[in-house]
Automatic annotation (TrEMBL):
The keyword Translocase applies. This is NADH-ubiquinone oxidoreductase chain 2. It comes from Lichanura trivirgata. The lineage of its organism: Eukaryota, Metazoa, Chordata, Craniata, Vertebrata. Its EC number is 7.1.1.2. The chain crosses the membrane at residues 7-28, 59-79, 91-115, 152-171, 178-196, 202-219, 231-251, 271-294.
Length: 343
C-alpha cells in the first residue's frame, strides 16, 4: 500500500468516527458510518491472503446490513415525526431496530458471530483497531439514544454477551480470536448500564481500551499468534511477560488492578436500581471469562517451554524495541483503581 493510501485511510477512519460522535442528524451519522466501513475494508484486506479477503467480505456484509437497518429505521421515524434529528427518535419500532443494528456493529450477542472470524483473519494491529476504535462510533450513538432505548433488550443482550464471551474463549488457542471473545464479554458489561448510568458505560469502554491496547501491542511486538507462543515469552523477555500477565489480570477484573473498577461500579449501580438478579447472573457468568484470562496468565508466567531457547532470535519475527505507549498504557491499566472514589 502506497504512502498516500496509508495517509488517506486512517484519516478517513478517524474523521468519520469523530463526525459520528459530534453529529445529531441521522443522514450525517449514516454517511459517516458508511465512510468508516469503506475505509476499514482495505485495512482488513491488505495482507492479500484468502483468510483476509474472507474477513473483509464478512466485515463488509455485516456492517452494510447494520447501516441499512439504521437508515431504514431513521426513515421510518422521519415519516412519523418529520424530524431527522437523533434526539427526536420517538418511534418505538425504529428505536428497537436501531438498537439491534448497533448491537450488530459492536458485536454484542446474539449478533457476535462475525467478530471472532474477522479478528482471526486480520493482522494484530488491524484486529486492535476493530476491537477498540471501531466501537467508539456505535457506542456514541447508543449514548445519544440512552434515554430512549428499551432497557430489557440491553440487559438481555448484556447477559448473553458476557456468557457467550466467556464460553467462546474457553477452548481457544488463537490469541486474536481469544481477544475477540474477550471483547464480546466486555461489550456486555458496557451495555448493562447504558440506560441507567451512561457515564459508567463510557468509563468501562475507556478502561477496556486502555487494557486491550497494550496486550495487542505486546502480542504484535513478539509476533505471538497462539497461546503456545506466549509460553515462550518468559525465556526471551521476563519483563514483558510480567507486564503482559498484570495487564491480562487487569482485563479480567481482579482487584487491586484497574479492571476491577468498572465491574465494581456497574454491579453497585445495578443493585441500587434493584437489578439484583441481573447483577448476580452477570457476576457468576463472568467467572467463565476469568478462567480464560487465568489460563493465559498461567501459560505466560507460570510455565516454561520444555527446552530452554538459546537462540538469539526465534523462528518467528522478534521485534526488539517496544513501542513507547506500551509501558505507559500497561501502567495505566493496572494502577488506576485508587481513583475510583473520585469518579
Amino acid at each position: 500500500m502506497n504512502p498516500m493510501s496509508w495517509l488517506m485511510i486512517p484519516t478517513s477512519i478517524m474523521l468519520s468516527t469523530i463526525l459520528v460522535t459530534t453529529s445529531t442528524h441521522w443522514i450525517m451519522t449514516w454517511t459517516c458510518l458508511e465512510i468508516n466501513t469503506l475505509s476499514m475494508v482495505p485495512m482488513i484486506a491488505k495482507p492479500h491472503h484468502p483468510r483476509a479477503t474472507e474477513a473483509a467480505t464478512k466485515y463488509m456484509l455485516t456492517q452494510t446490513l447494520a447501516s441499512m437497518t439504521i437508515l431504514f429505521a431513521a426513515t421510518m421515524n422521519a415519516l412519523e415525526t418529520s424530524q431527522w434529528e437523533m434526539t427526536s427518535t420517538t418511534n418505538h419500532l425504529a428505536t428497537t431496530l436501531i438498537t439491534l443494528a448497533l448491537m450488530m456493529k459492536v458485536a454484542a450477542a446474539p449478533f457476535h458471530f462475525w467478530l471472532p472470524e474477522v479478528t482471526q483473519g486480520v493482522t494484530t494491529m488491524t484486529g486492535l483497531s476493530i476491537l477498540t476504535w471501531q466501537k467508539l462510533a456505535p457506542m456514541s450513538i447508543l449514548l445519544t439514544l440512552s434515554d430512549k432505548i428499551n432497557q430489557i433488550i440491553l440487559l438481555l443482550m448484556a447477559m448473553m454477551s458476557i456468557t457467550i464471551g466467556g464460553l467462546g474463549g474457553l477452548n481457544q488457542t488463537q490469541t486474536r480470536k481469544l481477544m475477540a471473545f474477550s471483547s464480546i464479554a466486555h461489550t456486555g458489561w458496557i451495555l448493562s448500564t447504558m440506560t441507567i448510568a451512561p457515564n459508567i458505560s463510557m468509563l468501562t469502554l475507556t478502561v477496556y481500551i486502555l487494557s486491550t491496547t497494550p496486550i495487542f501491542l505486546m502480542l504484535h511486538s513478539t509476533s505471538s499468534s497462539t497461546v503456545k507462543d506466549i509460553g515462550t515469552m518468559w525465556t526471551l523477555s521476563p519483563q514483558l511477560a510480567s507486564i503482559l500477565t498484570l495487564t491480562i489480570l487487569s482485563l479480567s477484573g481482579l482487584p487491586p488492578l484497574t479492571g476491577f473498577m468498572p465491574k465494581w461500579l456497574i454491579l453497585n449501580k445495578m443493585i441500587m436500581f434493584n437489578m439484583v438478579t441481573e447483577a448476580t447472573i452477570m457476576a457468576l457468568t463472568s467467572v467463565l471469562s476469568l478462567y480464560m484470562y487465568l489460563r493465559l496468565t498461567y501459560i505466560s508466567s507460570m510455565t516454561l517451554p520444555p527446552n530452554t531457547n538459546t537462540m538469539t532470535t526465534k523462528w518467528r519475527t522478534n521485534h526488539k524495541t517496544q513501542p513507547t505507549p506500551t509501558s505507559t498504557l500497561a501502567i495505566t491499566s493496572t494502577l488506576m483503581l485508587p481513583m475510583t472514589p473520585t469518579l
